[in-house]
Write a structure and sequence with these properties.
125 residues; mainly alpha; Cytochrome Bc1 Complex, Chain D, domain 2; 5 helices; binds heme C
């Protein structure tokens, strides 16, 4: 009788894939918040700011900034902005639209850098 118990072993169920994906998302979110903390430092990390423009702004404005959910952010499209106005759009967002305020995530100095970078990318290398 005891042998019967050993004869049939149910195979282990396949590992749920979803958990792995969720773990990756959690790790990624952790990296994003670390990057955000780094942005608050005194000296400007311009490589991080460039990545932020392409990745974070790009997630709405298109990865080449040509427009997506949000409008085209290439220099020719922003020519009517001066640095100060552009900077306040970045810091305060545009109310009642998906354009979020970035003040919680970047300093004024960083927003000014991003504004200048959007207006004249080639002068901000
Ligand atoms: C969650 C989506 C989203 C993100 C992220 C986002 N934007 Fe926007 N943005 C928008 C939308 C939508 C508009 C258009 C709002 C409107 O209808 O006027 C906009 C408008 C703008 C405008 C005004 C454009 C114009 O032609 O007047 C600027 C400048 C701008 N965003 C810059 C940025 C920058 C810089 C970042 C990154 C720091 C950023 N946005 C991130 C959604 C986003």
């Amino acid at each position: 009788m005891a042998r019967c118990h050993q004869t049939y072993r149910t195979p282990a169920p396949p590992r749920p894939r979803r958990r792995n994906t969720l773990t990756k998302i959690a790790v990624f979110a952790g990296m994003v918040s670390m990057a955000t903390t780094a942005l608050a430092s005194e000296t400007l990390d311009t490589d991080a700011l460039k990545r932020l423009v392409l990745q974070d702004c790009g997630s709405c404005h298109g990865l080449t900034l040509k427009g997506g959910l949000g409008p085209d952010l290439r220099p020719e499209s922003l020519a009517h902005y001066d640095v100060d106005v552009l900077m306040s759009v970045i810091l305060d967002g545009i109310p009642d639209t998906p354009m979020p305020p970035w003040r919680p995530l970047m300093s004024e100095e960083e927003a000014e850098w991003v504004a200048r970078y959007l207006l004249q990318p080639e002068s901000m290398q």
